[in-house]
Amino acid sequence: MEALGGLPEEAVVNSHVLQFYFHQALAAYRAGRNRDFRQFRDVMQALLVRPLEKDHIMARRLRLMQFLSRVEEGENLDCTFDKESDLTPLESAIGVLELIHTEFAVTQETMETLREMVKEAAVIVCIRNREFEKAAEIVKRHIGKEPKSQVSLCWNERQLLEHCLVCPMGCWGTEVPGVVSGMSYRVGSMTPEGVRGFLEKHAH
């Protein structure tokens, strides 16, 4: 059975359902309802194997969901989105941001702000979980080549990053546990300002 425009009726219905759950997922994300966000994301994932209307708007929505899903899982270092690599969820989010930069009309300033936010969060999550070698690898891949003046980590966090580069296996002094426990990073606190502003402009 076909709907108006010659598309199969299922494709039209599925596309409307996908749009509905996309906006439900965004609302859950903004409100910090992590469980709801993941459930809506999973429903959307199931719909992707069914017939859908395919256009640039849907492509943008799906790309945003890829990014948000990785940020949402940011503190779960056992989670991986790249089967052929051991990238952490936030490192994977950096890769999605690069795709967004080429596909969306996003200003360079906005993209740099988001990119730096995610890079720093990726390192801090590893440090808080005492995955110092992973933290060192992320610093080398994503932050090591940049001027330190562009990195906005606080002094204690920067000092810990420097330790990671010199001694990634964890040869720390007695003061380090206090520094680690005192880090203020949390995925939920990282996202509202930078990511929410981005979503308000681009999630339609």
Number of domains: 2
Give, in order, the helices and strands: HHHHHHHHH
> Strand pairing plus helix content: what structural class?
mainly alpha
In CATH, the topology of the largest domain is named: Serine Threonine Protein Phosphatase 5, Tetratricopeptide repeat
Number of strands: 0
Strand content: under 5%
Average pLDDT, all residues: 76
- Could you give the distance between the termini? 29 Å
Helix coverage percent of residues? Answer: 55-70%
- Major sheet size, sense and barrel closure: none
Q: Just give the CATH class of the largest domain.
A: Mainly Alpha
- What is the count of helical runs? 9
Q: Output the radius of gyration.
A: 19 Å
CATH superfamily of the largest domain: Telomere repeat-binding factor, dimerisation domain
Low-confidence stretches: 147-152, 168-189
Question: What shape does the CA trace take?
Answer: globular
* CATH architecture descriptor name of the largest domain: Alpha Horseshoe
